[in-house]
Amino acid sequence: MEETIELRELLGIIWMGKAVIAICTIVCMLLAGIASWFMIDEKYESKAVVQVVSGVQDTGIMANYVATEFTPTIYAQRIQNKSSMQQAFENAGIKIKYNNKNLIANVDADATKNLIELKITSNSPEDAQQQLQVLMDATKQKMNESVQKTLQDLEMTYKAEAESLTKEIDSIIEKYNKTIRENNLPELLILQTILNTEIILNISEEQTAALSNVNGKLQNELLQLQTNIQTKAEEYRKTLANYQSVKTGLDSFKPDPFIRVIAEPTLPEEMSSPKKVLNIAIGLVIGMIIGLGIVFFRNYWRRSAVVK
Residue 235 is inside which H or E element, if any? Predict the structure, then answer.
């Protein structure tokens, strides 16, 4: 019985303060409406989906360098790099202060898909779509430049290594030739060493005598020099092959196979914020809560005054 009386009393208090509650509700709804329509900037959200994979093309000796750069994580980091993306906007003639808080790059947790969901907000649908496209193009270019720079450094490394090996081979051959001449040995031995094969020689009696007098120390020295020449020559051939491979790859490398656009940047049809209807509904709830609070506080104040 007491609960019924208390509930009726509460409803009576609310009914008596219905005007206050209505006024608070209307005011809060009006404020929410004014803020939504006239004060809060309209935002539009453009979306795109990109897949970044490195194993779609055999790049030979460059495979490790390509795999290191073309990953979803690196892509997400680069597209959110404030300084480089600001430069991309300036190059595209877009006058905007880039704030990467407007851009969201979500990397798919499934490593087999390597997907990145991109979202960007701007003040108009066209701007949002254009800005996202600029960011995607700039990110692809930056990743391409990074790999190109790595390959250029690798090319210079192989080139320097090949030049160093050439000098070493020249030095060893010069020493070998000098040893041959100083000991009056057949100079065709030089050709034999270079060709790495046995040659039947027509030599003079003097050279035959010189060959017969070759001691173990001289023979070991010549064999060691021959081995060094052959070893360095093999190293040179491998280095030269790597150099040519990198140079060819550098001339033909393109990032397109490794960055696939699954969904192009969308042109938003509706604004993403503010949510005008939702804001008004929130204003309605807040207004009612404030109104009820005022009504019950006023009732409490009156009762406290009567008791005193």
Answer: helix 216-252
